[in-house]
Amino acid sequence: MNFLGLTNKNKTFKPKKNVPEGTKQYHLQKYAEATLGSGNLKIAVVLPEGEDINEWLAVNTYDFYNQINMLYGTITEFCTPQGCPLMSAGPNFEYLWVDNEKYKKPTKLSAPEYIDNLMEWVQNQLNDETLFPSKIGVPFPKNFQSSVNVIFKRLFRIYAHIYLSHFHAIIALGISVNRKKGITAFN
């Protein structure tokens, strides 16, 4: 058995991306974790009073990346190039990959290949200090919110694929409600 996708040759399961401890983002992440535990998602996603919207978006971007990474890691043995030859969300939505580097034109990929490219792309975005500064006092770039919007949109595609193509696996594996609630954060 391919436990959590850790032996997947495609390396789709990425190591958890952590927010640097002691930073403003770290404290906001702890706040987000505490409010998520309340069960009221509307409260959990509201910008805390007096906090910077970009810091809050950065923390939630790290968190969504980690949640999706963990969820996808649990079903990688069910999401294969043979079973999912196309990245889709049900019969009506097909996703093509473009990253303006390796794939300059929209390209059809199998779901695992698309997801592997997407997770690597997001990880590169999160590691980019000019986009996600980790040092105190370094401002976020002017295009930060539009960049985060693209990241969230693309990460949502993984949720959509999992729930529309692999919901049976989610049920069979008994994935906890806590993992399922990640989808509601996109509402």
TrEMBL record:
Which residue windows are transmembrane per the record? none
* Metal-binding in keyword set: yes
Keyword Magnesium assigned = no
For binding Zn(2+), which residues are annotated in this chain's numbering?
79, 84, 161, 166
What the entry lists under Gene3D superfamilies is as follows: MOB kinase activator (1.20.140.30)
Q: Cross-referenced Pfam families, in alphabetical order?
A: Mob1_phocein
- Keywords on record: Metal-binding, Zinc
Q: Domain of life here? A: Eukaryota
Protein's recorded name:
Mob1/phocein
Gene source species: Diversispora epigaea
Task: Give the taxonomic lineage as stored in the record.
Answer: Eukaryota, Fungi, Fungi incertae sedis, Mucoromycota, Glomeromycotina
